[in-house]
Amino acid sequence: ASYGPNPICKGCLSCSKDNGCIRCQHKLFFFLRREGMRQYGECLHSCPSGYYGLRTPDMNRCSRCRIENCDSCFSRDFCTKCKTGFYSHRGRCFRGCPPGFAALEELMECVEGCEVGQWSEWGTCSRNNRTCGFKWGLETRTRQIVKKPAKDTIPCPTIAESRRCKMAVRHCPGGKRRRPAKTKDKKKKKKNLMERAQKQHSIFLATDKTSQ
């Protein structure tokens, strides 16, 4: 049936003035649109966001995606595109990727990331390759890359880290560590030497003048 130029009946095999399309032409999808308390049928070439096309011998229909935060889906339980701000992973949508997977921002997908092993124990506290002679040093621990990421653009987590530590033995056996003179002490000694030199020069000049 056709009701003149009414666009609601476009693509319909049968149409109602009040409810729109009841049956659609071949290859089109029947979509039941709801607006407040009113609902009416439409015949579409592709289903809108949040729906997928379900083909049946009786009539093709738009069925709602049952996956949370899904924008478009292949079937009711497999999402192909998530809503803005969500990452797609194995047909589901996540705010952040699960452990072992990394976010591919350009596609908003979760791909296999870089897997690392457990941290080793902290190493010996040392400084300048020495384990004595200083009060403070650094100790380091490492971990190995177990599996490289699927894409080279995905970085691996840090595999080495260091922290400040206190030396177990401050003074090395056989002698004390000589501390380098501080810059301030050097300047003070230089100033004293200059003053002494100037004083001696003044005495020499005074003596020489008297002798004349």
TrEMBL record:
The keyword Transmembrane does not apply. The keyword Secreted applies. Gene3D superfamilies: Hormone Receptor, Insulin-like Growth Factor Receptor 1, Chain A, domain 2, Thrombospondin type-1 (TSP1) repeat. Residues 172-191 have a biased composition (Basic residues). Residues 114-167 form the Spondin-like TSP1 domain. Keywords: Developmental protein, Disulfide bond, Glycoprotein, Heparin-binding, Secreted, Sensory transduction, Signal, Wnt signaling pathway. GO terms for cellular component: extracellular region. Residues 172-212 are annotated as: Disordered. Residues 9-110 form the R-spondin Fu-CRD domain. One of its GO terms (biological process) is Wnt signaling pathway. InterPro entries: Furin_repeat, Growth_fac_rcpt_cys_sf, R-spondin, Rspo_Fu-CRD_dom, TSP1_rpt, TSP1_rpt_sf, TSP1_spondin_dom. One of its GO terms (molecular function) is heparin binding. It is found in: Secreted. It comes from the Eukaryota. Belongs to the R-spondin family. This is R-spondin-2. The lineage of its organism: Eukaryota, Metazoa, Chordata, Craniata, Vertebrata. The gene is Rspo2.
